[in-house]
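User: Fold this one for me? It's TetR/AcrR family transcriptional regulator.
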Amino acid sequence: MTRPGAPLGDLFARAVTQAFGPALPTSDTTDDRILDAALAVLGRRSTREATVEEIAREAGVGRATVFRRFDSRDHVFEAALVRFVGQVVGTMVDRFAAVTDPVDQVVEGFAICLALDDDPLLADRGRRGELLAALSGGDPSPLRLAWSAVAANLRRAHRDGSITVGDPDEQADALVHLGLSYLMTPGLAVDLTDPAAVRAFARRTVAPIVGAIPPHAVPSP
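Assistant: Here's what I get for TetR/AcrR family transcriptional regulator.
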């Protein structure tokens, strides 16, 4: 009988802590295949149901290979989540280095968040509630850490005058919850699978949270 694994929330909390910590260890091609497989398995099964055998089959390697590189099933899943979070954070950092206007950053951040819809970890929409619970658990929770990062960026924009209205902490709260809610549920008035439509929607509807006024909303002279 398979021993129950650590709850997804615990694994996610530890992964986020590591992803925001020192530089992550490098991995090779086999590690990457195993970690990709672990995320795919997590997208289909809970940590209580998933097995190392299933990860090994998904990766096309033997069970012994998995255990030579990761000393437990929890370790495999934690390492996969660390890499997942690190890649998302890295994408945000790289994009924000190129796009410095806070309104454009809101648009790009929303688009990056919605692009996760294609990730294997989110393949089963029926299991996204478990992921939401995982993001909300822990002290601090991954959700609070995301809010802290967004709020810090908005505070800088307020200090340098790029944003002149609103409260940065409340703006960050709204942005994080909007991104997460659209990721967890299907869009009703916008095609969330179309990156261009997502960016246009974000610029018209999400960006005004930080004080941007869409061109069509400006009264004619």
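One thing worth pointing out: The chain has two domains: 1-83, 99-210.
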